[in-house]
């Protein structure tokens, strides 16, 4: 059955409805409708709405949330169908004078979830299982990423959120980075983006954790799985944590998030910036939620409405999120769809004859240099032996 969102606006101090509305009469899934900007957007000429006109950034966020609510009412099932029928390269468009047959499109598009510990990456994966599982597939399949003794995940895990052997994309859940060891985490990120990722690939433990170190058996198991090239990165950040960072002027989480979001390996590999998903916004008041979002976007140097989504982590028990929050369900589906659009427009050209000849020449030069280095070493040892022999005489 198609999910619907009935347009409403704040009614002041009405009591909460029995279906989970907030104390202001605004549905919990439409938290922005209690803001003065929504009164201005709806054409209500109140003093609060007049004062809100000066806050253009907040107004843009309200308009974006209303767009998602309107789209969720009519396009959620259609967007689900597009994702379920998607195949790698479906969203490709011509650029650079190359045809699709000359573009190196992998059989499966890989989306890599990145973020710091506790921001809700695994919860977001579970939410995707629930949202996309409504179209005939198993609706809930919780992540089973193995954890160390401190409860943190220790390896990469591939998720087929469509639960179909004909899926066109997969999602990789990664261990959370450590704020106190951001350099080591970014070095590992560079390796993932340049070399690729594998299912069950063991990651480097932080210096202050007691996680089980990488063993040879774990490496052997990981090497049995296919290595996938990362096609698009998705950065997940905790809205409530960044709000506390701004309040206390302890900007380490905010600075670390900016380093991760603007890391050169993401832009060099994907030729575009990552998608940003903000979680745990339901722990804040509407004013705190929208102000923190605007401040984060300003700090990262991005717009408040393009490539950024507010997704509360409410799906902890396999409940279908769109049964009570179609706006969040649509935001999750659109975030995945936008990531696929970014991935399909960033495929490199296939290597041609000149590229293969260059590789062959490079290997020949390497072989020759290794051969002459071996000869040099042998001659050096023979010369030394000859000098020692001459001294003995």
Give a verbal description of the structure.
With 393 residues, the protein is of the alpha/beta class. It has 12 helices and 6 strands. It has helices spanning 36-41, 47-52, 56-84, 121-132, 182-195, 216-223, 239-248, 252-261, 264-270, 286-300, 326-344, 353-392, and strands at residues 109-114, 157-159, 169-173, 232-238, 275-279, 308-310. Strand 5 (275-279), helix 10 and strand 6 form a beta-alpha-beta unit. The longest helix is centred in the C-terminal third of the chain and has 40 residues, at 353-392. The model is unreliable at 1-27, 49-54, 135-140, 207-214 and 315-323 (pLDDT under 50). This is G domain-containing protein. It comes from Vanilla planifolia (Vanilla).
